[in-house]
């Protein structure tokens, strides 16, 4: 198994290049393992934040506990 070396990345251009290279490798690995690509994952109807807010509101109103 190959691991990326940790190194100090300096500058915006180098950070962008590194981000691109790592992202490409991650996508390649997902494909090789037969995983679901991020753009193919279904979006939930509600966000986690919306669910948490609803749960908190119910807790505060004493509906659950």
Radius of gyration: 20 Å
Shape: elongated
Helix content: 40-55%
Strand coverage percent: under 5%
The number of distinct helices, counting runs of at least 4 residues, comes to: 2
Number of domains: 1
Largest sheet: none
Arithmetic mean pLDDT? 88
Order of H and E elements: HH
State the end-to-end CA separation.
47 Å
Please count the beta strands (DSSP E, at least 2 residues each): 0
Strand-pairing-aware structural class: mainly alpha
Question: Could you list the spans in which at least 5 consecutive residues all have pLDDT below 50?
Answer: none
Can you give a write-up of this model?
- The protein is mainly α.
- 52% of the residues lie in helices and 0% in strands.
Short characterization:
With 65 residues, this protein is mainly α. It contains 2 helices and no strands. The chain has one domain.
Distinctive features:
65 residues; mainly alpha; 0% strand
